[in-house]
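Worked example

This section walks through a single chain of length 228. The input is the sequence exactly as stored; nothing has been trimmed or padded.
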Amino acid sequence: MIAATEMPRDQTARPQPRSVQVPAGAVRLDGDLTVPPEPIGTVVFAHGSGSGRFSPRNRYVAGLLARHGLATLLMDLLTAAEEEIDRRTAHLRFDIPLLSERVIAAIDWLETDQEVGPLHVGCFGASTGAAAALVAAAERPQKVRAVVSRGGRPDLAGEALRRVTAPTLLIVGSRDPQVLRLNQAAQRLLAGESRLEIVAGATHLFEEPGALEQVAALARDWFARHLR
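Given that input, the structure is written out below as tokens.
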């Protein structure tokens, strides 16, 4: 755990996001980039299961990270047209190669930003987005220095798990047994440092009182430790 004294002193300031568009192949993806004063790193959020940059859970975590000195990029991994297709088919949310390509595109794009370009990057993945985050970490090992998965499906990253050297924190609710088993199996394949944190009493979405707060605090400490 990172001691509170090592965190930026102002934990109440709320940095304001700016709207950005991230080029990813033939499409441009909408996002919100929040940069606090003197950021120590940038965290890219990769959602899954039909979620987007307006996910209240991810925005809560991102807000806490920003108040503790971490820049954050919340973005839609699908275009509006693709989201409409996914609502009907629930197919694209499981297209890990597509989601991974777009997370990688975001990481590459961040290098061109004047405010955060030189900073190391962390990836925060939820649900199937966790697999995309891990594939991105495998493909950009020099840039991605930490990964956090919230109720994720790291198993869907497949063979890429064996190439992930970035320190990886897997967070799972104790009342999400199937996902817990998948995370335990995936952890054994990770090439780098890893830790599995089980949030007592939490289900898949961490909707129980205090559960999401625990997730946010764990992510904050992990990124502060590895991106500083």
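What to look for: The chain has one domain: 4-227.
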